[in-house]
Give the backbone structure.
Amino acid sequence: MTDLTRTSDSWLTSAPHQQWLHNQGQTLLDFAKAARVPLGFAGLDRFGKRPDDAPADTVTTARMVHSFALAHIQGLPGCTPLIDHGLRALAGALRDGVHGGWFATPDAQDGNTRKAAYLHAFVALAASSAVVAGRPGATALLDEAVAVLETRFWCEDEGALLESFAGDWSDCEAYRGANSNMHGTETFLALADVLDQDLWLDRALRISERVIHQHAAQSSYLPIEHFDAGWQPLPDYNRDNPTDPFRPFGKTPGHAFEWARLLLHLEAARRQRGLPAPQWLLEDARQLFHSASLHGWNVDGDSGIVYTLDWDNRPVVRERLHWTLAEASAAAAALLQRTGEQEYEVWYQCFWDYIDLHLIDRQHGSWHHELGPDNQPSEKIWPGKADLYHAYQATLLPRLPLAISLASALKLRR
């Protein structure tokens, strides 16, 4: 089949499209700069405003550090002070100075003292990108974050990340989550580059084999999200709380897209380093993308991707979240790069058309983070516009190779 990524027929090689992506990324960055607060970064409302007393949180701070580091590596001005501000917050009030690791908010002001793998994966990702950006303090932060991941969260017997602990590292949660392990996989890809260690690609492969090649393959290639401590699926988990932003009931098409992209990055990274790359990485990526498109896109009478599905692949929560479309477009781009097949070009253009027509907020800035089933702004799951990371990465990934992490790839392009 013709490799469209090497001809003028593909948006991926279109200079105007590449410039459009760059411009869109710049507007997202400019909007997010208002999220700075004394102890890190906080979420913005849909107008790009925040209360003067808006609390910082660790996930937002880490994602901002990561994103602004990516911008700085490209030579975009105004990001250096923001990276350094975030690094100070992650080394300061957001960190547990007694037991190590990170709280969700400064000094656990929200009362939540648990230490979550999801959060720690983002701290390590932020530190790794800041190291590539050459920022002071980044290496020490990365060393500490890696040590916490290795000594607390990584379970060699399971080949995956444990979910969470009490503040003193007791009381390991009897739950295993696909979401935290997915972002762990993303972080491990970055660590393999920054630390120059194959170990992280082996760990990423073990996670992917368990969550996708074993479990998702038995669930129509829509990832099972929730497991008990023995990695047995929990099909009724959060049935009474279906709109949970991190652990919703049922299956999440957006995560199938995200996993599809990560499998292709993992395949390319392993090949580049001369490591075995199982054929199932590509095959499963195709299947994940197909299932997410088939069961998530335009399934309830209007365009868009629904948030969740039940076990018969029927829509449960029909809101459209911006991160889902960001990951869908990035997955289409990755499959297009990998295969050159026309169907992924069609999907890539389709997803960006939707983003442009429905998600980009040309009145107040950034992207609407959530739309209702009628494709009008909604705040049922995600109020405001707290997330730069997903949308900004979506403007970068189509312009970069699959083989190495974002920060490393951007540095090589300079």
In short: The chain has one domain: 4-235+248-404. Residues 4-235+248-404 form a domain with the Glycosyltransferase fold (CATH 1.50.10.10).
